[in-house]
Amino acid sequence: MALATAALSCKEEIAAPGQCPALCPNARVETVDTTLTGVVTSDTSFRGYVSTQEAPILVISTLDSAKSLAVVRFVPRPTRWFPVLGDTVGVTIGTVDRATILLRFFQRDTSVKNLWMLVYRLPAKLDSTATYASMQPYFADSTLVDSVLVDSTLSADTLSFAVPKDRVEPLAADTGVVALGFALHAPQPTAVTIGAVDGSGAPAHLRFYARAPAPQDTLTHTFDQTPSFDTFVQSPVPPTPDGSALSVGNLPSARALVRFRLPRGIIDSTTVVRGTLVFTQVSPATGRPQDTFRLEARPLLRDFGAKSITYPDTSLFAHTSVIRGSSGAVELEIVRMLRFWGTRAADSLPRAIELRGFPEGSILGEVRLARGGSGAAAPQLRITYIQPFGFGVP
Amino acid sequence: MPEARAAVAAALLGALAASPAGADDSVFGIRGLGILGRPVSARSAAAGGFALFDGASALNPASLSRWRAVAGWGVGVPTQHVFESGGTETTLRSTRFPMFGFATLLGQRLIFGATISDYLDRTWSVSTTTDTTLRGTPVTANDQQRSVGGVSDIRVAAAYRLTSDVAVGAGLHVLVGSSRVTASRSFTDSSYASFAETATTDFNGVGFSMGVLANLRSDFAVAGALRVSSRLKASNTAGQEARVAMPVEASFGAQYTPVPGVALAATVGYASWSRAASDLAAAGEPGTRDVWSVAAGLEVETSAASEARLPLRLGYRWRQLPFPVGSAPLDEHAFSAGFGFNLAGGRTTVDLGIERGSRAAGAQSETFTSGFVGLTVRP
């Protein structure tokens, strides 16, 4: 009996095709598509969120638009090692058999052949005050450590090569610290990015293969030195935004803050099904040749200007891709953001977004966007929404 | 007793396991207030015109006098609809539990009963496809609108046996229910997010019915019922409200037993649904009409070796539905058949029936096949 009764519960739900108007509800879904102009109340951009020494990449470039050199200071090499657990005396370095350098390449133009990586010896007191002008004298023949052909040596994006050990041996006065500089040489302008010590998980390595002094010279050890500080110095340095346009991207990274005045009748009372923020570029996007980079828009949690806090829900973020050299409109789909702003949870939140490169600190591309108040070039919001459904009674 | 308890427990378990009645019923329920319910037992559903004489049906409060012991009953109805329009057929399925009831005797003459039955069915779902142009690009939108719910009639009634042949009854009705309507749109272009909105409409109203059942001869009985209701109040979550006038409903029936074990019955009903015309017109619905219904049936009790009586039933019914489809009136008719058997020493009765019918309004038509499973327990 229970089985029979339960069997009555089997059901299948299929909607019948509407035969309008006789067998369709009186109310219909109405979609409205429009473009809103003059929605930006204020905007500005700031540079310096991620500096070159904080970035997870080091850029080495011979491009005419931006030349750069990578500089790395390694952690001090110890003078002894402890082959036996519990040994407090250890073994000193007798001789160094050889030294190698390992670099991890993230990006390079593989069409550029005969690309050489040049390694230079830099002062051990290298620090964050280094600039392109101050470092350039050290990239000279007299300080050249070695050079290696990248094309034939690179394997699985990793460049590992031996260098003359005496040219990378720490000086006594430097207490074990070695600083090196990296530059490129190629038949044509090009750029590469290699891993930095900050967040890449693939920094440069300087390895010494050492041997104990006699009669313990059978004891060997590899000292694997990673950077204690690294950065890249560039010329020209990306300028501080001057207010003529909104700058986004590059290193040091720039962000733009855009504040909106959105019609409550649309945002709060309708269902937005699509919202496209359209920016006009005032100049072609810059970056490495053939580079495609991404921009990210985040809604703000609190508007504190340059120190604004963005809303942590990543599902609300919008992304778009920009091709280096392009000058067309930059469009961001922000429907989730608009829908969120229409909810009660977002009542107290500012109607503002922050534009930044993605991932910030890892892109070299930059866009310059027209600000609100730029007339026809000002940002626009193309919005498609559906009016509240007229359910009616009964 | 243990068998009766087992039967009741089994039925309750089955009912609990059943999904709520929320699948798609007749598409014709879109119009007006929905499809009119039929507050009949599985026995009356199979046998046509016996509803006014059936204590388990909620049409005539006087019919409660047919109960001779405490009883509880319920009905489950799985239904398949095949909707046809413009050469396209769509099959819809649903399961409803349109009737639950209880009756008890208060002395020798007074019988008290309570029933919950379907009054209006407002469960339907339609889908349409619309081609539109957005941002200069053709985009296809798929719309679906769905309503789930209806209005139930909770009746508290009493019957009184004036004599062994005449009984009168009265009932108080509370109409209560809700329907949840969802409108949604999705786009084939993934650049556009989907849309969905939901509103719930609550209904309430009250009514009063009275009836009489009389054995004019040992082989002939008549019954009649009259019902009046207040306006049905509808209010939705969007803050809108409407009141719709309810009809005056009258029915009359006759039952003839030419030989013992064979019964013929016929019922005629009338409902003045035109009273609701102006109220529904204000909501954009076409005008309603007064409607008639006719039902006739045969019940033959067979002899069986066991305690089960195995009555066999045949029936036919026709009714007009008050809410037109466009300008076309909607009518419905059905043939039915069924049987019943007793279990547990006669304390449990299972009634099974099947009904095959159709509805039509202009170019749209629908055939339906319903099964009726009724369980009556007399502990």
What descriptors fit this protein?
A: 394 residues; mainly beta; 27 strands; elongated; disordered N terminus; B: 379 residues; 3 helices; 18 strands
In words, what does this structure look like?
The complex is a heterodimer of chains A (394) and B (379). Chain A is mainly beta. Chain A has five helices and 27 strands. Chain A has helices spanning 2-7, 132-135, 150-153, 264-267, 335-341, and strands at residues 16-17, 31-36, 40-47, 57-62, 67-74, 80-81, 91-92, 95-108, 116-122, 144-149, 158-163, 179-185, 191-195, 205-211, 220-225, 227-235, 246-249, 254-260, 271-279, 281-286, 292-302, 309-310, 318-323, 330-333, 352-358, 366-369, 380-386. In chain A, the strands form five sheets. In chain A, strands 4, 5, 8, 9, 10, 11, 12, 13, 14, 15 and 16 form an eleven-stranded antiparallel sheet that branches. In chain A, β14 and β15 (220-225) form a beta hairpin. Mean pLDDT of chain A is 91; it is low at 1-12. Chain B has helices at residues 2-17, 42-47, 277-282; strands spanning 35-36, 71-85, 88-106, 110-121, 124-134, 137-161, 166-187, 195-217, 220-229, 232-236, 241-244, 249-259, 262-271, 291-301, 311-325, 328-343, 348-361, 364-377. Residues 1-23 of chain B have low confidence and may be disordered. Helices cover 7% and strands 63% of the residues of chain B. Chain B has three helices and 18 strands. Chain B has 379 residues and is mainly beta. In chain B, a hairpin with a 2-residue loop joins β8 (195-217) and β9 (220-229). At the A-B interface, α1, β1, β19, α5 and β27 of A face α1, β2, β3, β5 and β6 of B. β1 of chain A pairs parallel with β5 of chain B, so a sheet runs across the interface.
